[in-house]
Automatic annotation (TrEMBL):
Protein name: TetR family transcriptional regulator
One Pfam family linked to the record: TetR_N
Protein's organism: Bergeriella denitrificans
GO molecular function terms listed in the Swiss-Prot or TrEMBL record: DNA binding
SUPFAM superfamilies referenced in this protein's UniProt entry, alphabetically: Homeodomain-like
Length: 217
């Protein structure tokens, strides 16, 4: 029974922290805020987590597992519209953990463990899967790019995606992210594909990507 209680409290702390970090901003939430919101003592929280950064590391692991699950399970796109939907799925996962992307570099600078988790996740796991996406589009004759271009494009697409929420909120002078940022991010990330599209796909791409953004306004 004690073990079950421990697991439940541990999970409740992580779940509550995610909600508070997303809604109020990670910098505005302390471990005392989290404990008070849960109705537990700070000592109870510290029994499970020594500090806030340990909670953030667990949330990053949860996010990385969710994104990798999506990238492994989602069917690779076979059309322009599929590509938009595929990228929307990536942004949907990121939106669930959006506090991680509102000030990425500050979080990474604070924790060597988080930095290691992040770098391994990006270099060893995400980038190769994005190359698979580009190989698919290249093989179908939707884009045309050589191996070097596809490797560079995969890194650039991930770089824009990872920093998009931070950039968009600062550009608009907002302290809190709104969900329309997600749609603008889809547009901006996929805009990197446009120079590589074969001419017969460009009109369709422009029409559909603009329609997605217009629908969110």
């Amino acid at each position: 029974m004690a073990q079950t209680s421990k697991i439940n409290t541990y999970t409740r702390i992580i779940n509550t922290s995610l909600v508070l970090f997303n809604e109020e901003g990670e910098r505005n939430i302390s471990t005392n805020h989290i404990a008070a919101h849960l109705g537990i003592s700070p000592g109870n929280l510290y029994y499970h987590f020594r500090n806030k950064d340990e909670i953030i590391i667990q949330l990053f692991k949860r996010y990385s597992e969710a994104l990798l699950h999506y990238l492994h399970e989602a069917v690779l796109p076979s059309s322009v519209e599929d590509s938009i939907n595929y990228m929307a799925g990536i942004y949907d996962v990121m939106w669930e953990y959006r506090f991680l992307f509102s000030d990425v570099n500050t979080l990474l600078a604070r924790s060597a463990e988080l930095l290691g988790e992040h770098n391994n996740f990006t270099q060893a796991k995400v980038s190769p899967l994005l190359v698979n996406l580009l190989n698919q589009l290249n093989g179908l004759g939707i884009i045309r790019a050589d191996r070097i271009a596809m490797n560079d494009l995969a890194v650039n697409m991930w770089m824009v995606t990872k920093y998009w929420f931070d950039f968009d909120s600062s550009l608009r002078g907002r302290t809190k992210l709104t969900e329309d940022s997600k749609v603008r991010g889809i547009h901006r990330t996929l805009s990197l594909l446009r120079p590589y599209l074969l001419p017969e796909y460009k009109e369709e791409f422009d029409r559909k990507i603009n329609a997605v953004e217009a629908a969110a306004k």
